[in-house]
Amino acid sequence: MPAMPATHALIELLGEVALLLWGVHMVRTGVTRAFGADLRRLLGKALRNRVAACVAGAGVTLALQSSTATALMATSFLAAGLIDLVPALAVMLGANVGTALVAWALAFDITIVYPALIFIGLVIFRTGVRTRTRNIGRLTIGLGLVLLSLHLLVETIVPASVSPDARDLIAAITREPLPVMVMAALVTWAMHSSIAAVLVIASFAATGLISPFAGLAMVLGANLGSALNPLLAASSGERNALRMPVGNIANRLIGCAVALPLLPLISEHLTTVIPDAGRQVVTFHLVFNAVLAVLFIPPLALIAKVLERMLPDRPRPEDAGSARYLDPASLETPRVALANASREALRMADVIEEMLTGSRELLRRDDNRLLAELTRKDDVLDRLNGALTRFLAELGRRDLGEEENARLSQIQTVALNLEHAGDIIDKGVLNLAGKRMRRRLRLTERQVTEAEAMHEHLLAQLRLAVAVFMGEDLPSALRLVEEKERFRELERAAAESQFALTPEAGQHEETRGLHLDVVRDLKRIDAHLASIAHPLLERNNLLRPSRLVRHPSFKR
Fold first, then answer.
1. Distance CA 167, CA 10 (A)
2. For a Cys staple, 137 with which of 125, 260, 420, 481, CB 3.0–4.6 Å?
3. Residues contacting 122, CB < 8 A, separation 6+
């Protein structure tokens, strides 16, 4: 066979490697779709001790043909706090052995069966009714494509097909083991598949394109490169999820550092035991990972401690939506529990004040970032209210006195009204502010002045409501309800001013409607703030059951 031009050979090699990667991808996706939930469940059950976790990691990787996929599963368990770091590290040791077993099995000369696998897989895929059956067909086709690509690789790189100049160049490039290892690591990282990389290396070695010594150095690089993908995937997450891929790449580095100086001796010994260079590559790959698993399983607890010290958890910013003062231990002392609940209710009032202040700013300027921040504050309010409601419900089951029951009811009233006020700001006022910004509407100076005056009134009402709640101040409670009438006057004046304007006066109809909607929502907020005074007024018989005046002639 005449030597193939270098460009032609390179194009064929790229296509065949791409086919190999696609075949591995089809096997992985077929297994994941058909048995992914079962494999994940199996892995979760096995993560009880390091040996079982190692075996499970190897088994799942044998099925998925991807240590990266197994690593991502284990990382998700670790990030969720479902497993400890020790079994997670053991899973990775097993996953590395699993990929080596797959490469070792596929390197056998069974390319004769690829036509049957592709045909059978296609029949299963086309005739299958159930989704799982079709995915089994997919993985069968993928396995056939893997074997086909390996057959084509061998055909392309047989010695007679490569020119002597190209062979001399390859020999020169692969003479030094360290650069070869680094190059193989980068290629494996780019391929996202150590199985494909090792199989390509084995094909190169089997045909004499590279020396057995260079093949072993490239295997070390492939092991490093395959550890980069889980590391990069976890680098933007939490520290607890990053520890496992860091530990994985650390044991690979240690293994490579020990094995690299010994490669000449190892290559000489393997050549004596296994004449076929391709088999030497996959056997070395398997033995390398098996030895690492055996050596690193015993000290995993120590390794985990070192990783936790090297990668401590980042200090978390305080969660505004988590309760600060609702100590379950205080439930045994109702007065202390009520004081704690009151402090948590004050946090809700602070959130309402921030939302009102921010919504006032959005009357004059467009600020999508501020709008998003204020919208998130309603979620904070909902979480605080939920935690406070559960705490008070638990406290209500205790044996409370009349005064304590009254205070508990008052805290519930305050929390409920503040939560409703927050919903109105979020779903009403902020929604209208977003609508104004999206449509590029501008309120008139008079509209802004009126809305700002209402906001100032609400902020004053909120502070008065807090004083009523904390100080049981009866005059302040009366004033809080009386000021509600003041808001009706503001609303009436705003409506009259809007309807008095004509289109000739430059009043945009849509802006007028938007402004009146804001006024309506602010009035509803004021009603909820005034309701905070009702329990105190009711206890002092200062709140009428109804505002209706009954006519003498009215009969039920």
1. 13
2. 125
3. 137, 141
